[in-house]
Structure formats: C-alpha cells, structure tokens
Amino acid sequence: MDNQARIDFLSQLIQIDTAGGFEDRVATVLQSFMKQHDISCRLLPVMPGRSNFYAQLGTGKNGKVLAFCGHQDVVKTEDPAMWHFPPFSAHIENGRMYGRGTADMKGGLAAMAIALAELKDAGVTLNGKLELLGTVAEESSKINHMQGAQQFAKDGYVDNITAAIFAEPTNADIAYAHKGSITYRIDSIGKAAHSSRPDLGFNAITPLIHFYQEQEQYFHELVTQYESPVLGKAVPVVTKINGGEQLNAVPDHAELFVKLRTIPETDNDDIIAHLKRIIDYVNDQDHAQLSLEILGNKMAVTTDRNAEIVNIAQHAADQLLGRDFSVRGIAFGTDASEMSKANSDMDVLVFGPGNATAHKIDEYIDLDLYLKMIDIYKQIAMDYLK
Questions:
Q1: What per-residue confidence (pLDDT) applies to 18?
Q2: Cα Dmax for the chain
Q3: Could you give the 3-state DSSP secondary structure of residue 196?
Q4: Would 379 disulfide with which of 207, 212, 316, 330, CB 3.0-4.6 Å?
Q5: What tens digit of pLDDT does each residue of 225-274 get?
Q6: Which band of pLDDT confidence, cut at 50, 70 and 90, is reported for residue 60?
Q7: Which of 24, 73, 131, 347 is catalytic?
Q8: Which of 23, 24, 131, 138 is flagged as catalytic?
C-alpha cells in the first residue's frame, strides 16, 4: 500500500463512531479489508453489536505466536462544538489527522492491520504465527471493562501467545510494564429522618467519613512501604462521593468511589482483603452498614527488560523511527491486564503511535509517525518470527 492508501484506511476508521461501543462498525471494515488481502479472519460476537475481531498469518508450528492487539471503541467526545474540527471528520492539517480515536487507538489499530496486509501482499514467510486481536469495551464499560479481552482469554485465543504488542498511545516509546488498577464503590446505608430529629434516623455519611479516614491511613502505608523499580508507587484517588437528597433530611444513603492504580508489589487481592477488614471494623464501631462493590480488578503487567520482544522492538525503532525514544513503564492500563490472567508467560509491550491528546478535545495523530509505525510493526514481526 502506498502512504495515501494507508492514510485513507485510517481516515475510514476514524469516521466510524464507536464512542461508547458499536464496535461491529469497525470489525466489519477490518473483516472486509483482510479479505481483500486474502488473510484469514473472523468476527467473534461478545455482546449485541459488539464483536471482537481476529486475523492471522502463518501457522505457529514452531511455537512462537506474536499478537498485535488493539481496541475498537473510543471514549465519548463530550461537547463536539468545542472541537476545532468535527470529532469524526478525520480532518488533516499540518501533517496531523484530527479526530476521536486517532491517538487512542485507531491509529495503532490501523497500523497493525496494514502491517499484516503488507506482509501478506509481499509474500513474507513467517516462522510462526502473527495475529491481530481487535477487542471491544476497553473504553466503554462502566463496570469491569475490557470484556473483549476477557472473552479472548476465556475462549483460548491467548493461551499460545508468546509475545503481544498493545498499540495504546505511547508516542512510540516502548513500555514493557504498566500498572494495574482496582476500581470500587463503598456503599453506606442509613435511615432517613427530619433534620430536626436526627436521633430518629442514622446518617449514612458519618460512617463513610470514618471509612475514608481509615482508608487514607491505609493508603499512606501502601504508598510509603511499597515501590516498583519500574512503575513507582501505587496511586490511590477518591474520584467521587455522593450522599443525601435534600438539606433538611438525614441522608439514608451515601457512596464513595475509588480508583487505585496498583503495582506488582501490592497484590490486588491483598488490597481488596484489607479494604474488607476496614469495612468490618467501621461497621462494628459505628453500627453501620457499609459494603464493598468491586467495579474493576486489573492486574499490573511486567515483562523482563531484556526479553526478546523488547530487544527486537528497540532495534526496529532505532532503525526506523528517526528520533529518540524511551524504554520504560507506564501508569495507565491496557487489555493486557485481562489477557495476562490467562497467560502469565507471554511477554507484553505497549507500543503505539498515539500521543497525550488521547481522551482530549482535538485529539490527533502525527501522520508521519503513524506511517513509520506500520513499518516498525512489520519489522518486529519479521524479526520475531524469522
């Protein structure tokens, strides 16, 4: 494919609105594209209108399987009127393509799809299997997101992968580790009463404040006692608090939401167990009714800095990128958190052409970097499956 065809394909994906889901709109385009290049592929329904996409080259007879991974959904655009260009217009100006998903991560997904197609068209022989896994619901599920990655893992597609590259936006830096996360809600049940007679009710906010204080003490211990040499410290953030209905009534319900970014040194299950102990303590001390709901439990992912796929990616970037880049850990999570649960032995890289405009107004991708990443992905595949 020439560069204009490469850009046109990305433009086609950006013009498809998959904010909040509707991934079949992209999956069917990917399917048509792969069939044009005589590449084996299939749609794998996960939810109505939301299908994972799978394609493969080679057979994997030597035991090595390289997976290119990307999600098909994008975050919502908030107020489109605040954008300089319509968020699904794929507007091009000064070497940049603007639009929701350009950076996160249809740019990376398109580059990976084109890499497969160009390797196939060139008749390149791969000593192993190269796969493309397009997932659903990485961005767009409020509870326990990454259902697409979970389904790939459940159905056995992850079992034989030896190395996987996730095209999340790293501005072509190479990440071999990323944090996990625990997302949860603390629910407090009280008893309503008139504000003039609080003794007849039970204020649901009061034990929630007590829990918050106990939690803050635990978070301090967590952050000061544990640190990853690659990922740094865990990062806890209370993101939302709700409570009460009106100013003259004792609230009978309150809730608190937390997003906690975790590291391998702070086991997620241990953290959840400790939160439950805090809840039991507050319930006992305050005669309260607090409960814990886990909204997401994603593991931290790390790969050996000297793993083969890391060295191969670094070599390809050295040859083709034409600028400095770093090899590091990153703070955000990826579908690898779910896939690694099914295959903890696979090496994982996060390596994509997107940038820090992900999730922001006027999101864009640098087209020169996008084009270079196609060639980098091809080189990685050829070197890893040589």
A1: 97
A2: 81
A3: coil
A4: 316
A5: 999 999 999 999 999 999 999 999 999 999 999 999 999 999 999 999 99
A6: low
A7: 73
A8: 138
Task: Say which residues have a Cβ less than 8 Å from residue 280's Cβ, sequence separation at least 6.
Answer: none
3-state secondary structure of 364: strand
pLDDT at 141: 72
> What residues contact residue 44 under an 8 Å CB cut-off, 6+ apart?
51, 52, 53, 54, 151, 152, 155
CB 290 within 8 A of CB 207: yes
Q: Tokens representing 91? A: 């507007």
CA atoms within 13 A on the CB side of 63: 1
Cβ-contact 192, 251 below 8 angstroms: yes
Contact 55, 119 (CB under 8 A): no
User: What are the tens digits of pLDDT across the range 193-233?
Assistant: 999 999 999 999 999 999 999 999 999 999 999 999 999 99
Q: Is 73 assigned a catalytic role?
A: yes
Q: Which two tokens stand for residue 29?
A: 């385009």
Q: Identify residue 176 by its one-letter amino acid code.
A: Y
Angle, helices 268-286/205-225, rounded to nearest 10 degrees: 140
Cβ(70)–Cβ(112) below 8 Å: yes
Question: What burial class does residue 306 get, using C-beta atoms within 10 Å of its C-beta: 0-12 exposed, 13-18 middle, 19+ buried?
Answer: exposed
What is the C-alpha separation between 278 and 236, in angstroms, rounded? Answer: 16
Tabulate helix, strand, coil % of the chain (nearest 5). Answer: 35, 30, 35
Both tokens of 150, joined, read: 């979970």
| Residue 113 and residue 69 in contact, taking contact as beta carbons nearer than 8 Å | no
Q: What is the DSSP letter of 80?
A: G
On whether the CB atoms of residues 248 and 195 are closer than 8 A, the answer is yes
Report helix, strand or coil for 282: helix
Rounded to a whole number of angstroms, the distance between the first and last alpha carbons of the chain is 23
Query: With 0-12 CB in 10 A as exposed, 13-18 as middle and 19+ as buried, what is 124?
Result: middle
| Residue 138 a catalytic site member | yes
pLDDT reading at 278 higher than 80: yes
Q: Report the distance separating Cα 281 and Cα 261, nearest Å.
A: 24
Residue whose entry in the numeric block shows the structure tokens 């301090």: 220
H/E segment holding residue 50: strand 50-58
Tokens 């896994």 -> residue: 133
